[in-house]
Amino acid sequence: MTTWMLTGGAGYIGANVLRAMRDAGFDVVVLDDLSAGVRRKVPDGVPLVEASVLDRDAVAAALREHHVTGVIHLAAKKAVGESVANPLKYYRQNVEGVVALLEAMDEVGVRNFVFSSSAAVYGAPKDKIVTEGTKPGPVNPYGSTKLVGEWVTRQLGAVTGMSWISLRYFNVAGAGAPDLGDTGVHNLVPLVLRAVSKGEDPIVFGDDYATPDGTCIRDYIHVTDLAEAHVVAARRVEAGVVDEETGETRPAATVYNVGTGEGHSVKEVIAAIGTAIGRSLSPQIEERRDGDPPRLVASAARIKRDLGWTASRSLDDIATSAWEAWQAFPPEA
User: Fold this and answer.
1) Nearest CA to 48 among 5, 97, 1?
2) Which of 103, 147, 159, 315 is the 20 to 30 Å CA partner of 191?
């Protein structure tokens, strides 16, 4: 029997991954400092270790106590603007955090790892569709910290034989269930819903980009699709990869984009949310934010080819599920 630890498993993405992993039959334990996570999102019967990934001793103790065989690392700071304003905070949490976690795993002998990376590692690429072969060039500290996390993961795997997959998320939104919505203050969809709830116009940061409507274009992926990608990644990490020439099984060591291959502008997302809530929305235009590339759209061909995963949910599914979750569990502020 295998047991997977989810760091950040009480957070927005983490809780959706937790549910998908349990539905797939995995035993799961959550490690979360609850700085952004919500205790109610960890269901009864799932152990919750309240600790930071920066606390190597606490992580190692939890790995031993719960006989963990693999880790999905989701705990991180992820606001681009905040990373620009406070880069040291991001390097401490995101870089020192992954180092401390991997040290604990190495000490205990846990050799299966799925790393939550980001499309932010690509920066502002010229490629219309971004593949895993697109040269990384992060334009903000958040993206830089995720790229460093990938480097550390790859280099440790080469030394120890750790089996690993890094998932480069594109823009995650929506909800897997009404109790699993995003109530954050940095992502577009909850920002729009927060404005609607307050009777305010949603804000768009910049409408003068070189895109058809002047607003940034992103690849928006439903969080349930993303959660299912973690399930297939965990299975591949456990099973390893069979060498076609020798027939031998070797550890996984791969980076995958997780997206839809389709881009939507900020204005298009706001329009979809308006349709979901039943009224049109008029965004307020403000200055650009530092560190926002004009366009990021994924090629997800590699993960489809290797793992059989493909996104199946639409922008309308994202908007409708997000609005249902927002109504079911509105944030306090």
Assistant:
1) 5
2) 147
